[in-house]
Design a protein that fits this description.
It holds the Pfam family UDG. The protein is 33% helix and 13% strand. The protein is of the alpha/beta class. It has a five-stranded mixed β-sheet, sandwiched between helices. It is globular.
Length: 172
């Protein structure tokens, strides 16, 4: 499997953080590459991207101010295969990345990702009131995986809250 490179640079508008790469992403080397994953459709339907991007174009989203990383780098079939030790180690590494690159918003693509990172439970969708890294907006969205049974319209409605941060960044 190909390694999944982070797409990071300083001062991103939004850094998207997933659980870990899917097996398909591990095979292709691109984020959210599983055919059942709705990530790129969600971004397009919210207006975060001007067109529907393909997983092979994940690096191009840096030009829009969007970056990618995962809390765990090892590809698996499901997030259930990730060990507690991997989450603990990944949380420390992720916090360092956020402090180093200081994105405006960190969007956790899955409530469980944020729970593992923050060690908090029972949070709502959207902006979290007490960020782990001061000065960064932490925003929780549902996973875009096809295993998540939410309707696309529901996902788009939650992700749409990110649009204000994206537009604000472009107009400054």
């Amino acid at each position: 499997m190909k390694p999944i490179s982070d797409h990071l640079q300083e001062n991103l508008s939004i850094l998207f953080v997933g659980y870990n790469p899917s097996l398909r992403s591990g095979e292709t080397g691109h984020h959210y590459a599983s055919p059942s994953n709705r990530f790129y459709r969600i971004l397009f339907q919210t207006g975060l991207t001007p067109r529907l991007y393909k997983p092979q174009e994940d690096g191009d989203l840096l030009q829009l101010g969007y970056g990618f990383t995962n809390i765990v780098s090892r590809p698996t079939l499901t997030a259930a295969e990730i060990s507690p030790d991997e989450y603990r180690e990944g949380s420390v590494i992720l916090r360092d990345k956020i402090q180093t690159y200081h994105p405006k918003v960190v969007c956790f693509v899955g409530k469980g990702v944020y729970e593992q990172y923050s060690d908090k439970r029972g949070m709502p969708w959207g902006v979290q009131p007490q960020p782990v890294v001061t000065g960064v907006i932490e925003y929780v969205c549902p996973s875009s995986s096809g295993l998540v049974r939410m309707k696309l319209e529901e996902l788009v409605a939650i992700y749409s809250g990110l649009l204000a941060y994206s537009q604000a960044e472009r107009s400054t």
